[in-house]
Each structure stands twice: as structure tokens, then as C-alpha cells.
Amino acid sequence: MAAQVVVVGSCMTDLVSLTTRLPRAGETVLGHKFFIGFGGKGANQCVQSARLGANTSLICKVGKDSFGNDYVENLKKNGISTAFVDQTTDAATGTASIIVNSEGQNVIVIVPGANLLLNSEDLKRASDVICKAKVLVCQLEITPAVSLEALKMARASGVKTLFNPAPALADLDPQFYIYSDIFCCNETEAEILTGIPVGNLEDAEKVGRMLLERGCKLVIVTLGAEGCMMISVEEPIPKHVPAGKVRAVDTTGAGDSFVGALAFYLAYYPKLSMEEMIRKSNCIASVSVQASGTQSSYPYRKDLPQDLF
Ligand SMILES: Nc1ncnc2c1ncn2[C@@H]1O[C@H](COP(=O)(O)OP(=O)(O)OP(=O)(O)O)[C@@H](O)[C@H]1O
């Protein structure tokens, strides 16, 4: 069966070292724990969608190396189609080397590697899958022009486009607004895109309006524990959709859980109102913040209340 949710995006291997304190330049410190995690916004969003039961395909590039091999296995374990996961010898799998001290502060070095080699040819090879999807999801951890091309291909076939402008670019190509049916960003990204800091719901309404005016059909600004602000061409009065109160232990990757969940609802429950889809996606992302890690915190359908489906 054709994939209903298709993600064009990144895979990153997280290399995490826990230390008492962060090393100074030139210094070596002893860590007490090391682990490898699967990350990258594209893969994260695809994994969350797949765990809710979506038929998914990820279009991405990893290295022909051990991290790349492990990543492909991870995607398969999550039931994601890897038909368009390309393994290249021209660059290493993307990595995020992360050092975290005992106060939770971190330093991070990201090397996008193979992610930046995903190109037009890869999209053309996958065009059948993109054009038969219900929803196409893109972010900005690959070459932005490739994300934009994927959005255009999807739009030309009537596929719903969900764009997450992360990490944000101050000089985002204005065409991204035009080709995004849904433009979903967090507070920081909204600030970079509009120049307006988002400190409260009023600010979120303001940035939502500004982004909508740039040409997308619907804007969602995620607001952490506050849930989301939504505004659409159909209902141009911003609406706050609160998240439930939970005890958060690690909010890393909550935004990707939200986007993956929203893609699932758009593809499988198109008759739900947007507000209801956002409310349900808030519920799923708020489950993810109650466990540590990124993909490791994303819930499976079987473990969620059945009224979410
Ligand atoms: N403390 C929290 N309590 C309940 N829900 C939360 C909390 N933090 C995040 N969420 C849920 O996750 C969604 C996304 O959160 P947020 O706006 O922090 O994304 P983000 O900044 O992109 O996250 P990240 O960059 O860590 O992936 C929120 O809209 C909400 O549904």
C-alpha cells in the first residue's frame, strides 16, 4: 500500500556523553555515561507518525557507514519504508555530538554530512511516492532548496503539505509560505522569522497573523506547555489550543512528536476539525515529554488512550 505520510528530511545519529562539567578549550574531562540515539527532525517526525499507525516513507540520505546501517535498521524496526533511504559513500551519516553536564547544560556540534547531499535526483526517483501521499512533511535540516522542491512536487499533485521551518532561517525563501498548506513553527522559529519575541499568547497571535499574511493557508505556533496557537485563512481569528498539564521530564523532540502526530491525523482523520487534530497532537506530544530522549520518548498507538483514534 502507498505511504500516506511521506517525509523528506534528515537523519542524525546523536552521540551523547554525560559529564560532571563541560570541558574548557583544550581540556579533557572524564565522562560517566555514553549513549547513541537516533535523531534528526525528518526521521523523528516520521517515527512518531509511524508509531501512531501511519503508513510512512522517509526520503533521506545517510552514509554508507555503521551509523547509516544502524539508522536504516532503526527505521525498519519502526515500520517505515526505507525504499528511498539512500546510502552514500560521499559523506558520513549526519551526527550530533552532545556533551551534557550534571546541571543539564550542553554543548552540541552538528555535522549534517550526508543530509546535505539529498538532491533533486533523489526526489525525482521518489516522485511516485511523493505524489501518491496524503501528506508530505518537510523541515530545514537538509538543503532548503530540496525541501522547497519537494513541497512544490506535492502541491502539484494535490498532496497536503506540512512544513516545519526548523532550524529557522532569517532569510527563508518566501515561496515556502506559498507552498505550505500548514506552516508549523515553535516560538524561537517564529521570532527568527518575524523579528518578534514570543513571550505570551498575545505575541503568538501577532506572529501567527504575520506568518499567515505571507501566504500559507494555516499557521500553527507551538508554545511548549501552553500548547499551540492556530490561525487559518478560513478562520482568521487566532485560536489557542492548550496542552494538558503533565510533569515534563525531557522536552527534547516534543516539537517533532507534535508534527509527526499532526501528519498522522491529517492523513488518516481528514474529517476532524483542525482544532481537534491539534488538540490530539498536543496530547501525543505531551506524552513524549514525560519520558527522556527523543525517539525513545515517542509513544506507540497501543499505549495511548483509544479516544485519540
Ligand atoms: N511541558 C509540556 N507540557 C505539556 N505539553 C508539552 C510540554 N512541552 C511541550 N509540549 C507539547 O509539545 C508541543 C511542542 O512543544 P514545543 O513548542 O516546546 O516544541 P519545540 O520547541 O519545537 O520542541 P523541541 O525543539 O524540543 O523539539 C507543544 O505544542 C505541546 O503540545
Short descriptors:
309 residues; alpha/beta; 10 helices; four-stranded mixed beta sheet; binds adenosine-5'-triphosphate; UDP-N-acetylmuramoyl-L-alanine:D-glutamate ligase; nine-stranded mixed beta sheet; globular
Describe this structure in words.
By secondary structure, the chain is α/β, with parallel strands linked by helices. It is built from 10 helices and 13 strands. It has a 9-stranded mixed sheet with strand order 5-4-1-8-9-10-11-12-13, sandwiched between helices. A 4-stranded mixed sheet has the order 3-2-6-7. Helix 1 (about 40-50) packs across helix 9, helix 7 packs across helix 8 (about 200-215) and helix 9 (about 255-270) packs antiparallel against helix 10 (about 275-290). The longest helix is centred in the C-terminal third of the chain and has 15 residues, at about 255-270. The mean pLDDT is about 95. Bound molecules: adenosine-5'-triphosphate (ATP).
Give a brief description.
With 309 residues, the chain is an alpha/beta fold.
End-to-end span in angstroms? 21 Å
Number of domains: 1
- For CATH, the homologous superfamily is named as Ribokinase
The proportion of residues forming helix, as a percent range, comes to 25-40%
Enumerate the spans where pLDDT stays under 50 for 5 or more consecutive residues.
none
